[in-house]
Amino acid sequence: MNEFSILCRVIGSLFNRQPQDPLLVPLFTLLREGKLQAQWPLEQDDLLKRLQQSSDPQALAADYNALFVGSDCNVPPYASQWPGGKTESEVRAFLTSRGMPLSEAPADHFGILMLAASWLEDQSEADESTAQLELFEAYLLPWCGAFLGKVEAHATTPFYRTLAALSREAIQAMYDELADQAEDDEDE
User: Fold this and answer.
1) 3-16 helix and 158-187 helix, angle to the nearest 10 degrees
2) 129 pLDDT band (50/70/90 cuts)?
3) Does domain 3-187 have CATH number 1.10.10.10?
4) pTM of the full predicted structure?
5) Domain coordinates of the chain in residue numbers?
6) What are phi and psi of 13, to 5 degrees?
């Protein structure tokens, strides 16, 4: 798994799953033990240390639920509920056209879109960087800044405020890399 995929998978998993989800135990263990920094490809040590200091899954559950769960949540994690965001069916059609297997869960969830970026990277074929660029430009960037800003504003724990800041920086770095790569490909 390369650096791009690691970033997307970690961010996607933390937004897509309840913090007490058994599948997140290894990730929270890495965070608590300070071992994620060694594998993190971006210079975000301060943010990772802040995540580490507030990474008790049980203490995060109420904040996660208030932020993202239910029709009365503070910050809907679905693109279709934000200005500029695509509908769930548009997102599903795009991901399905790229061969990504999807469950019945809404495909326009921020966490799913980040996991989709990882999946596209891991499936990399000749045109997958084009698909990744399209994912960022059409399905993620038009609304994720507003979404992450609301997460920072409404989170009651330092963990989710920090995760939003870390995600914003990581998404921008990944997009810049994809755009540079696309420009280089055009020059060839």
Assistant:
1) 140
2) confident
3) no
4) 0.93
5) 3-187
6) -65, -40
